[in-house]
């Protein structure tokens, strides 16, 4: 007897979304732009790529300069999940999922995309502008920022975005030396832990405050089980613990849960039979 194939399932596999069979450490995201009418691309990103690296890649597709780019992560319904504001963090820190969208907000009034004419990204001229040439431009994001700060010394990108969205901007209060002391009290060096967002697991290596180079308050140093961190246990030249590069992170205590969090088995979701 010959093998009977489910032709409908086979067709769905062949014609299915491009995210099928992709590596577990990549994610397929839609991309939209504040100056363009439609989502103009679908790109696959490595979750270990820094937000700075994501911006560099998007620059070549959108024509928006990295320094003029603000990124937001939206879910499938269009609800904002996070502002991708920390250029040094890996994309995976924000826990994006297939089908989510990165929205580019272009703050450069002289951007190539202004007016919505740049719908065909193949027409984008890709080049590196020198610092001297950039400084000669009359309208740049750098000068836009200087003008804003001259008008309002408390101006920030977050404040600008809130005003553009019709929201009331409430600045965060500066933390004191005992910031999150109550949460840090229950975290001890050697504890297994899970870090949110992303449910990243690891071991607590440091707990303390008055950390040189970091804002006031308590911090927790974590050595991750996987290379999803952003340092080797040192920040701005100050060492708080030691681990392999890319395995360390310094976090506020509210991001760290301690308990029975063993290392994840990479094969735990695989079928028993191959």
From TrEMBL:
Q: Keywords, A to Z? A: Chaperone, Cytoplasm
Q: Which InterPro entries does the entry mention?
A: CAP-Gly_dom_sf (IPR036859), CAP-Gly_domain (IPR000938), TBCB_Ubl (IPR045172), Ubiquitin-like_dom (IPR000626), Ubiquitin-like_domsf (IPR029071)
Q: Which family does it belong to?
A: Belongs to the TBCB family.
Q: Which SUPFAM superfamilies match?
A: Cap-Gly domain, Ubiquitin-like
Please state every residue range assigned to the domain named CAP-Gly: 216-252
> Chaperone: is it a keyword of this entry?
yes
Task: Give the matching PROSITE patterns.
Answer: CAP_GLY_2 (PS50245)
**Molecular function, one GO term:** microtubule plus-end binding
Its name, as the record gives it, is Alpha-tubulin folding cofactor B
Gene Ontology terms: cellular component: cytoplasm; cytosol; microtubule plus-end; nucleus
Kindly list the places in or outside the cell where this protein is found, as annotated in its UniProt entry. Answer: Cytoplasm
What is the organism of origin for this protein?
Answer: Klebsormidium nitens
Is this entry keyworded Flavoprotein?
A: no
